[in-house]
Input
Amino acid sequence: MLLTDKYAYVSKLAKKDPLAKVIFTFAVLFLCLILNNVFVSIFILIFFAGFTILSNPAVSFFKYIKFMLIPFSFLIMGIIPVLITFVKDDSIIILIDRFNIGITYNSLNTSINLFFRALSAVSVTYFLALSTPMVSFFESLYKLKLPKLFITLMELIYRYIFILIDEAQAMYKAQKLRLGYNSFKSSLYCVSSLAAMLFIRAYKRADFSYQALLSRGCNGDITTISQEYEKAYIFYVLIFFIAGFCIILKAVL
Amino acid sequence: MSESILKCENLCFSYDEELSLNNISMNVKRGSITAVLGRNGAGKSTLFLTLNGINIKDKGSVYFNDKLVEYNKKGITEIRKKIGIVFQDPNDQLFSASVIKDVSFGALNLGLSQDEARKRAEKALKEVEMYDYMERPTHALSFGQKKRVAIAGILVMEPELIILDEPTAGLDPMGANEILVLLKKINKEKGTTIIIATHEMDIVPLYCDYAYVLDKGSVVMQGSPEEIFCHADELRKYDLRLPRIAHLMEILKKYDNMAVDESIDTISKARRAIKELVNGKSN
Ligand SMILES: Nc1ncnc2c1ncn2[C@@H]1O[C@H](COP(=O)(O)OP(=O)(O)OP(=O)(O)O)[C@@H](O)[C@H]1O
Ligand SMILES: [Mg+2]
Output
């Protein structure tokens, strides 16, 4: 999320009602998971890849491929055990003869299905991540009437992750400058002291931040103004179009 | 209303055994800009947090508008509405990932409506010249920009007294100047009293009416900037220095035997004095 957030701000859809986008995303995600069809998955994958690239000027085709490659390695690792099974008689290739281990039609089918289903789900999620800044995302959660404490915590954690990363980076640089990490032993030592220091800093910061909140009159819960967003009913309409198209696709193919 | 807005008598506070504030007495005039000076660890930040009821004082009394401040829940809420603190490190203060949300926070806590809070937040952002950054995420701002947003977050509450803990640290020269001019403007127009903790001596004679010097948790010097900068040796004892111009005047007087007034501490005063000196000689 840290990686994509920067791009989300420049998306043409950034100012659109985040709730509509969230509902749209989850509806399509759900659709893609329950229909469980390779063609539906491929259609959703292509549709959302195109949608994301067209709607976000900062995300070029190659950038998008790069983003997709992040979950790719995990995906491949996950697919391999599904693909390679104990073979009975419907084998395509037998890899290890003695144990009857190989690839079957069935396993090939499932793994291709799984592969595209996962990839399309990722593309749908990327659409949300690359078009909705986290701040707007939180706002939509408030509208969904989720517990307030829960969302406030998410917001604060989100903000302080950046501070933590900044501090960790500064400390890492400071250690490097003083010739830390130059041997295995010193690396171990540096990492351990960095982690310990980070805990202490985090604790101190929490203290200061709490004081700062108090001094601005915070009385337990954090209320902020909600931003104005452009209405985006188009997303609700899109849900129906995509759903219809997918169901036809599944029925025909 | 009386002259004094904030007065504290024999204020004591300690984090552990050591006293971090030792019998602090001060009296801040309404509508003034007061400087609090002192080396690192002198107790400036501690003093502010104690005034605000975040550190619970051990001893002493604080008066706001001549009324004794009760440090119970109600009194503390009340005092926090009237005294706004801008923290030393803006990262401590900015809690939201969105600039406008962070700035409006204090206003909403005052019980204002969403619209009113937004209006005030936008105005405050304009005042600190961060209006164009409203939509930016907080973590994508530079240190100085964060500092401005932090100041806006306090301005929005329109407190009677604003305390700024090192407002110019980490700002570029122009930025620091702009902030001080802004503070002066707020001070003039709204009559807001301002307290500044700072290490930058040069700004003290320019912007401040009165100054306190803290050392090891006690007030060791106080007076108008001219009065304080007359005692150069005493100041140096507390690891502080004169403003550059005052230092120049001191050197001119001491080593070059020139008849300049030691209380000169700003460029404009120095200019006038030098002109007088030169013209006086030629006449
Ligand atoms: N949270 C804390 N716990 C214990 N001791 C503290 C704490 N904060 C400050 N102190 C101590 O209290 C004393 C005063 O600190 P304070 O932060 O008020 O100094 P300061 O004048 O603001 O310094 P600086 O110019 O560096 O900001 C110091 O000796 C410091 O070590
Ligand atoms: Mg301090």
